[in-house]
Amino acid sequence: MHAERNYTTQLGAGLGMISETLDLLRLWEPGLIPAQLVDRAVETGLFSRATARRARNLTAEMFAPRYLANDGVVASRIKYLLEHRFPHDSLIQIFFLQTARAQQVFGDFVINVYWPKYSTGATTLSSDDAERFIHRALDAGRMKKRWSESMIRRVSGYLLGCCADFGLLSGRGRKKERVVKRFSIRSDVALYLAHELHFAGQSDMSVIHHLDWRLFGLEAQDVLRLMKTLGHDGHLLIQSSADLVQISWKYRSMEECLNALTQG
User: Fold this and answer.
1) Residue 174: what pLDDT?
2) What is the distance between the alpha carbons of residues 219 and 232, in angstroms, rounded to a whole number?
3) Phi, psi torsion values for 240, nearest 5 degrees
4) pTM of the prediction?
């Protein structure tokens, strides 16, 4: 989500696809590449009510970019959490994070439209808001080729629908206006994200200022307060001044962090 990428219409293949993601995580095994997972999903009839083409689209175009990059590292972590009864609502927030990372049009919409609306106390978000966002992106050259007005309308619906899937907005179906819901990062997801960034090689200061936190409506000062709360819970030790952040990390690997997350 950090190096700018072209916006695509790929989100429409499945939006948040929460139940499908859970099914595919249960089916996936470490070492299974996307093409093999596609074949297994079709052969086992995982999506019995879907056509083979639909099953392939969900697996190859939606699940794989979100969870199977870097040899499935993220899928392995989330599968571990799933198998050790990590809270369902927390899993959904990690799905939200991965979707926003993989589908930049969605991540940018959340950061640049949803949260500004939320912070001003707006009670609804409309398809007009989404369409204006897409038009600005078109003018900024974020698409390989200019989208038609009908495509703009469809993608605006995808954006609102995906927000609804992950609990940022209420309602389903073809609604031009949806109610803004209260949405905040769960403490176990914050712990997961902080350690994921740390073990990816981010400096302590970079962890605090990372763009991923903005998906949850958090600026650096909010993240700092959140990290201090995690420190009070015994997960880490944080010291900060105006221009310095130093964190002593309790867990020596992401695996240790995952184990701690599932012990509560």
Assistant:
1) 56
2) 20
3) -145, 150
4) 0.93
